[in-house]
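I hope you will forgive my troubling you with a question about protein structure. The matter concerns a single protein, recorded as an amino acid sequence and a row of C-alpha coordinates. Please examine both parts with care and let me know of anything in them that strikes you as inconsistent. Here, with my thanks, is the record as I have it:
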Amino acid sequence: MTVAILLLTHDLVGSSLLNAATRTFEKLPTNAFALPICNDCDPEQIIPQVENTIADLQNEDGILILTDLYGATPFNIAQRFNDGKNIRVIAGINLSMLIRVLNYANLELSSLCEKALTGGREGIIYCGCTEN
Protein backbone atom coordinates (compact mmCIF):
# COMPACT_ATOMS: atom_id res chain seq x y z
CA MET A 1 0.00 0.00 0.00
CA THR A 2 0.92 3.65 -0.34
CA VAL A 3 -0.20 6.94 1.11
CA ALA A 4 -2.90 8.59 -1.01
CA ILE A 5 -2.47 12.21 -2.07
CA LEU A 6 -5.16 14.89 -2.16
CA LEU A 7 -4.39 18.30 -3.64
CA LEU A 8 -6.81 20.84 -2.22
CA THR A 9 -5.99 24.13 -3.94
CA HIS A 10 -7.36 27.31 -5.44
CA ASP A 11 -9.05 26.77 -8.78
CA LEU A 12 -6.90 24.66 -11.12
CA VAL A 13 -3.56 24.97 -9.31
CA GLY A 14 -3.70 21.40 -8.00
CA SER A 15 -4.92 19.78 -11.20
CA SER A 16 -2.27 21.63 -13.22
CA LEU A 17 0.47 20.42 -10.87
CA LEU A 18 -0.91 16.89 -10.88
CA ASN A 19 -1.10 16.87 -14.68
CA ALA A 20 2.52 18.04 -14.93
CA ALA A 21 3.69 15.43 -12.41
CA THR A 22 1.69 12.69 -14.12
CA ARG A 23 3.63 13.29 -17.34
CA THR A 24 6.86 12.31 -15.57
CA PHE A 25 5.51 8.90 -14.54
CA GLU A 26 4.24 6.10 -16.74
CA LYS A 27 1.67 5.38 -14.06
CA LEU A 28 1.18 7.23 -10.79
CA PRO A 29 2.56 5.15 -7.91
CA THR A 30 -0.41 5.95 -5.67
CA ASN A 31 -3.93 7.31 -5.72
CA ALA A 32 -3.83 11.06 -6.23
CA PHE A 33 -6.65 13.51 -6.82
CA ALA A 34 -6.89 17.27 -7.20
CA LEU A 35 -9.97 19.00 -5.85
CA PRO A 36 -10.29 22.66 -6.91
CA ILE A 37 -11.69 25.24 -4.52
CA CYS A 38 -13.10 28.32 -6.26
CA ASN A 39 -12.50 31.76 -4.79
CA ASP A 40 -16.14 32.53 -4.12
CA CYS A 41 -17.23 29.14 -2.79
CA ASP A 42 -18.91 28.62 0.55
CA PRO A 43 -16.51 26.35 2.50
CA GLU A 44 -19.45 24.69 4.28
CA GLN A 45 -20.82 23.55 0.93
CA ILE A 46 -17.42 22.10 -0.08
CA ILE A 47 -16.96 20.00 3.09
CA PRO A 48 -19.20 17.10 1.93
CA GLN A 49 -17.29 16.90 -1.37
CA VAL A 50 -13.97 16.79 0.53
CA GLU A 51 -15.38 14.11 2.86
CA ASN A 52 -16.45 11.99 -0.13
CA THR A 53 -13.07 12.40 -1.81
CA ILE A 54 -11.26 11.43 1.39
CA ALA A 55 -13.51 8.38 1.74
CA ASP A 56 -12.67 7.37 -1.84
CA LEU A 57 -8.92 7.79 -1.26
CA GLN A 58 -8.80 6.34 2.26
CA ASN A 59 -6.56 3.37 2.90
CA GLU A 60 -4.68 2.05 5.90
CA ASP A 61 -1.54 4.01 4.97
CA GLY A 62 -3.27 7.36 5.23
CA ILE A 63 -3.77 10.50 3.18
CA LEU A 64 -1.48 13.47 2.68
CA ILE A 65 -3.38 16.64 1.80
CA LEU A 66 -1.32 19.26 -0.03
CA THR A 67 -2.63 22.82 -0.21
CA ASP A 68 -1.29 25.85 -2.00
CA LEU A 69 -1.44 28.69 0.51
CA TYR A 70 -1.24 28.58 4.30
CA GLY A 71 -4.24 30.26 5.93
CA ALA A 72 -6.33 30.42 2.75
CA THR A 73 -9.67 28.69 2.20
CA PRO A 74 -8.30 25.38 0.81
CA PHE A 75 -5.90 25.14 3.74
CA ASN A 76 -8.61 25.95 6.28
CA ILE A 77 -10.87 23.27 4.80
CA ALA A 78 -8.01 20.74 4.81
CA GLN A 79 -7.22 21.49 8.45
CA ARG A 80 -10.68 20.27 9.43
CA PHE A 81 -9.56 16.78 8.41
CA ASN A 82 -6.01 16.92 9.79
CA ASP A 83 -6.00 14.35 12.57
CA GLY A 84 -2.20 14.08 12.77
CA LYS A 85 -2.45 10.31 12.41
CA ASN A 86 -4.17 9.08 9.24
CA ILE A 87 -4.52 12.46 7.54
CA ARG A 88 -1.89 15.18 7.50
CA VAL A 89 -1.80 18.57 5.80
CA ILE A 90 1.10 20.48 4.26
CA ALA A 91 0.72 23.97 2.77
CA GLY A 92 2.86 25.54 0.07
CA ILE A 93 2.76 22.89 -2.64
CA ASN A 94 5.06 23.23 -5.63
CA LEU A 95 5.87 20.81 -8.43
CA SER A 96 9.11 19.56 -6.89
CA MET A 97 7.26 18.77 -3.66
CA LEU A 98 4.58 16.84 -5.52
CA ILE A 99 7.06 14.83 -7.58
CA ARG A 100 9.02 13.99 -4.42
CA VAL A 101 5.84 12.86 -2.68
CA LEU A 102 4.86 10.67 -5.62
CA ASN A 103 8.35 9.15 -5.77
CA TYR A 104 8.20 8.23 -2.08
CA ALA A 105 4.48 7.44 -1.67
CA ASN A 106 5.41 4.02 -0.25
CA LEU A 107 6.86 5.63 2.90
CA GLU A 108 4.96 5.82 6.15
CA LEU A 109 2.86 9.01 6.39
CA SER A 110 5.12 10.89 8.83
CA SER A 111 8.23 10.12 6.74
CA LEU A 112 6.40 11.16 3.59
CA CYS A 113 5.62 14.52 5.21
CA GLU A 114 9.35 15.07 5.74
CA LYS A 115 10.06 14.15 2.10
CA ALA A 116 7.39 16.62 0.98
CA LEU A 117 8.93 19.42 3.03
CA THR A 118 12.48 18.79 1.83
CA GLY A 119 11.31 18.39 -1.76
CA GLY A 120 9.47 21.69 -1.61
CA ARG A 121 12.38 23.56 -0.04
CA GLU A 122 15.06 22.04 -2.23
CA GLY A 123 13.03 22.89 -5.33
CA ILE A 124 13.29 26.61 -4.56
CA ILE A 125 16.62 27.88 -5.82
CA TYR A 126 17.81 31.43 -6.28
CA CYS A 127 19.54 31.47 -9.65
CA GLY A 128 21.03 34.94 -9.43
CA CYS A 129 21.28 37.18 -12.42
CA THR A 130 23.92 37.95 -14.96
CA GLU A 131 24.85 41.42 -16.02
CA ASN A 132 25.14 42.12 -19.70
Notes: The mean pLDDT is 95. The two ends are 53 Å apart (CA to CA).
